[in-house]
Design a protein that fits this description.
- The chain has one domain.
- The protein is 52% helix and 10% strand.
- It has four helices and three strands, in the order βααββαα.
- The protein has a three-stranded antiparallel sheet with strand order 1-3-2.
- The longest helix has 20 residues.
- It is globular and about 50 Å long.
Length: 94
C-alpha cells in the first residue's frame, strides 16, 4: 500500500464534507463562523457533492491552500511593524 501524502493532516485527494466535524476541526471554526467566512469571501463556498446539492464539501487540496493562505497572512501581520498597525487602526476609526 502506498502511503498517502498529507499536509496539516489533510489528504489532498479526499473530499471533506461541509457538515463533517473533521472539517470544522481543520478550519478551526464552528457552523456559524464557517457560514460567515464564506459570506465574507474568506473561504470559497463548498462544492455540491450530489445532484440535489444538499451534500457539500471541499477537496483536501482546497483546505490545504486555505490554511497556507491563512498562515501567510498571519506571518505578514506579525512581520508588520507595530507603528504601521496602530496607524492603520487609527485611520479606520476616523
Amino acid at each position: 500500500m502506498i502511503a498517502q501524502q498529507t499536509r496539516f493532516g489533510i489528504r489532498p485527494e479526499f473530499v471533506y464534507r461541509r457538515s463533517d466535524p473533521e472539517t470544522k476541526r481543520i478550519l478551526g471554526l464552528g457552523d456559524t463562523a464557517i457560514d460567515d467566512a464564506i459570506a465574507a469571501g474568506y473561504i470559497d463556498p463548498p462544492a455540491p457533492l450530489t445532484a440535489s446539492g444538499r451534500a457539500k464539501g471541499w477537496l483536501g487540496s482546497q483546505l490545504i491552500a486555505l490554511i497556507e493562505r491563512r498562515l501567510a497572512a498571519a506571518t505578514r501581520h506579525r512581520a508588520e511593524p507595530q507603528q504601521l498597525r496602530t496607524a492603520r487602526k487609527k485611520k479606520k476609526r476616523g
